[in-house]
Amino acid sequence: MADSKAPSQDAPHNHGLAHTTPVWLLVSILLVLMFLTVLTVAVTSFDLGAQGNLVVAMVIATIKAGLVVTFFMHLAWDKRFHAIALAAGVLFLILFLAMVGADRGEYQIDIDRHGEKYPFKVK
Amino acid sequence: MTDTTSETQSNAETNGHSAPPPGEHELHGKAEAHAANGNGGGHGHSQYPHLAHHFDSPQQQFDAGKLGIWLFLVQEVLFFAGLFCAYTVYRAQHPEIFVYAHYHLDTTMGAVNTCVLLVSSLTAAWAVRNAQLGEKNKLVINISITILCAFVFLGVKYKEYAHKVHEGTLWGHHFNPQHELWELDTFKSKHPESAKLAEKIAAIQFEGQAKRNPHGEHQGSGAEANAPGPTTPSLPGATAGAADSDTKVRRIQSLLLQASDETLHPLVAAGIIKHNIQATTGLERPATAHIFFGIYFFMTGLHGIHVIAGIIVWIWMLLKAQRGQFGPNYFGPIDYAALYWHLVDLVWIYLFPLLYLIH
Q1: How confident is the model at residue A86 (pLDDT cuts 50, 70, 90)?
Q2: Residue B191 CB neighbour total at 10 angstroms
Q3: pLDDT per residue over B18-72, tens digit each?
Q4: Nearest to B111 among A18, A41, A58 (CB)
Q5: Which of A58, A60, B53, B351 is positioned for an S-S bond with A40, CB 3.0–4.6 A?
Q6: B288: helix, coil or strand?
Q7: pLDDT in tens, A29-55
Q8: Half-sphere exposure of A19 (CA within 13 A, CB side)
Q9: What residues of chain A lie within 8 A of the CB of B78, using their CB?
Q10: C-beta atoms of B77 and A1 within 8 A
Q11: Rg value, chain A, Cα
């Protein structure tokens, strides 16, 4: 048969074309996501140093994103190719931010020189 | 299409290699082998009424659609990457502007919207399960809750935008805040001592001015903190008479020197007073604060457009679900819509701490 994985008619509740996520798992993931949202708001009232709060906020956001991607978006049971495609997109996002971030201060001297030559005037 | 010939066809040809039925297109021949019931839709796949004629099987159709939506989502990540890049560079260069601006945002509204989107993500994922199991009524309910959450999200967003229009905290040359940092409840409740100090300084700085001109004060961008020329483009008072301003500066200086570091720090962090206290002649607004609101409106606006697009897709899915179109062999559209919706949620998961939770 061309479609050996296609569900047969006598088993209407089988997994068929893709994995079926149980309700208890979906609800648990939501509860964890809600908890992490409360946590990320609560942690802003603590001073964790210059970049500490930003790092903690991004780590929590990434855990949340990981849960959504893995369970809500079925990547845990999906074809690996979809996970690889997403990982490639995220990799290029990180490369983009890292390259531009590394370069961002390189032109300050030119900006300052320009400022000396053409002082900013308040209208 | 009702295929009266298929019953005998499929009975005879159980190994999947059937000749095209008489009068049928040749391309349909393979699928006709499965057409045992003979009461399907109009695509030549009698057993699977929603199987498009260019696919061999529901599995192939589902996998093709899923690959397509994933490639689209990867593109969406890169699409938003440009804005996240603008955010990263600007925050790294001008952290004080983000500290200053985040007091203008309502964290509660942002947190409520985060929870609303998370709930809608659950109902979207649940809807996929309902579609897979052919639970029509539950599917309709879950899609409806998802749409409802999307409207709640946009409603909260509308309130936030309306507040910003009212407060003048907008992008570019529309930036004309009606309240200074130390006048904001968000700042007062977090740093009461700093707000009191700033009020005292402001009272001296704006002495003799009946009312700060709400429209004439905003200036364009470009002033760096270390650039020559005035760095206080936003607040009048710096241009007061020379002799008058000398005594004002001395009074402001004495206030600043009496203040503790804990009191000064929130004002310095937000760019309201200079790092070098001796050089501070008065309160100022960070020169390019309007760029934060440019980034804010662009990022949340693009995200909002995605939410609106999601609502349209979900309404379409609701109509299909009400007709009972989904089941174990055909739930791809619900799955793809849910995947898109989760991506919209993912973007917000990052936007919320980046815009609202700046420390």
Answers
A1: very high
A2: 22
A3: 444 444 444 444 444 444 444 444 445 678 888 998 999 999 999 999 999 999 9
A4: A41
A5: A60
A6: coil
A7: 999 999 999 999 999 988 887 689 999
A8: 15
A9: 89, 92-93, 96
A10: no
A11: 24
